[in-house]
Structures are given as structure tokens and as C-alpha cells.
Amino acid sequence: MKTLTAIIFKEEDMFVAKRPEVRTVSQGKSIEEAIENLKEATELYLEEFPRNQFNRPILTTFEAARSA
């Protein structure tokens, strides 16, 4: 069992979940549903394209100027 990262954001009326380690994406009406769908998509992907090692993404924040 591997622990992977999920990035979740709201897009209109759905939650979108992404796994940057393997670049899978899914969505759901709730955060929990989005994560569950992402888990299923990632497991299917890894069955087809197994990986022994995952590079952890670097998550950071930065500031950008707003245009008027």
C-alpha cells in the first residue's frame, strides 16, 4: 500500500481531485466522493502501468500581482 497525495479543488458544482505522482484525475459531488473516485482511477492506472517508486511533489505557495 502506498500513500499518495491528493490535490482537491472546487470547480462549479463538483470537486476535482488530482494525484500529481501519477497524474490521475477524477471528480465527485463531495470531497469524499472525489477522493474515492480518484483512488479507483489511480488503482486502475497502476494495474496497467505499475510503478515501484513515486516522487513526492513539492507543494508551496507564492504571491502574484493582480492585474487591475
* Shape by Cα distribution: flat
Strand-pairing-aware structural class = alpha+beta
* H/I helix tally: 1
**Rg from alpha-carbon coordinates:** 14 Å
The ordered string of helix (H) and strand (E) elements is: EEEH
Portion of residues in helices?
25-40%
- Total individual domains: 1
Please give the alpha-carbon distance between the first and last residues: 48 Å
Total number of beta strands:
3
Largest sheet properties: 3 strands, antiparallel
Just give the CATH class. Alpha Beta
Strand content: 15-25%
- In CATH terms, what is the fold-level topology? Double Stranded RNA Binding Domain
Report on this structure.
With 68 residues, this protein is of the alpha+beta class. Helices cover 26% and strands 24% of the residues. The chain contains one helix and three strands. A three-stranded antiparallel β-sheet has the order 1-2-3, with helices on one face. The radius of gyration is 14 Å and the shape is flat. The model has no long low-confidence stretch (mean pLDDT 89).
